[in-house]
Amino acid sequence: MKSNSINLSVLSNILYHKFKNIEVLRQAITHASASSRTWNAYERLEFLGDRVLALIVAEQLLERFPREREGAIAKRHVNLVRCEALAKVARTIHLGKFLILSKGEENAGSRNSNTILSDAMEAVIGALHFDGGIEAARRFVRVEWNKLLEVDLIPPQDPKTTLQEWAQSHKLALPHYTITDQSGPAHSPQFTVQVIVDGYEPSIGVGRSKRSAEQSAAAKLIKLVSE
């Protein structure tokens, strides 16, 4: 118990927030596999964090790029709230080492799983908002997501568009996308999508929406055909 308290204190400092109710933070880092509840607070906070992150990143982009059109802003936004971006921030702050997991998830290497890390990152952002309001969440998100913005100031190209243009330039049929799996609770589903281009091995993408899963699959296939 003492070790957990110390870890939570350290994590609070990393998040730039002193929690009034430290149990909210504990709930955010307790994976469903390690929870004794019939309903899981982790997933509820993840649901909240997803919405809070989307709002704060949208604000940040509008302020940072006042002359860009909505289309370019939308591409940036998708890139910054996707699973990979969340997992990258989670790794930057070493969130994985704070997670409370079941033995099975621990053995499966879930501390380094993009999906687990991105879910936990959203739950932590939800906990910041729940305990300290929008300003507590905004303080953390603006600092950490600004680092992602600095990496690439040019609006990212939509992977689906890039793949389609590549296929057309090589006189191939348009990429074909198929949902192969859908899992998770209704408020936070996870989609698995397969994309096929004639003459190449299919690529698989995972995302919180059909669109994000398609984008992920397209990005992987672009990398494959470029090698």
Question: What topology does this entry show?
Answer:
Elements: H1 2-14, H2 22-28, H3 41-64, H4 70-81, H5 83-92, H6 103-107, H7 114-151, H8 159-169, E1 176-183, E2 190-196, E3 203-207, H9 210-226
Antiparallel strand pairs: 1-2, 2-3
Helix pairs in contact: 2-7, 3-4, 3-7, 5-7, 8-9
Q: Which descriptor suits the 3D outline?
A: globular
Beta-strand percentage range:
5-15%
DSSP E strands, number: 3
Largest sheet entry = 3 strands, antiparallel
CATH topology of the largest domain: Ribonuclease iii, N-terminal Endonuclease Domain, Chain A
Count of folded domains: 2
- Biggest sheet strand order reads 1-2-3
Descriptive overview:
It catalyses: Endonucleolytic cleavage to 5'-phosphomonoester. InterPro entries: dsRBD_dom, RNase_III, RNase_III_dom, RNase_III_sf. This is Ribonuclease 3. The chain has two domains: 2-151, Ribonuclease III domain (Ribonuclease iii, N-terminal Endonuclease Domain, Chain A, Orthogonal Bundle); 159-226, Double Stranded RNA Binding Domain (2-Layer Sandwich), CATH 3.30.160.20. The protein contains nine helices and three strands. It has helices at residues 2-14, 22-28, 41-64, 70-81, 83-92, 103-107, 114-151, 159-169, 210-226; strands spanning 176-183, 190-196, 203-207. Strands 1-2-3 form a three-stranded antiparallel sheet. It is globular. The relative contact order is 0.13.
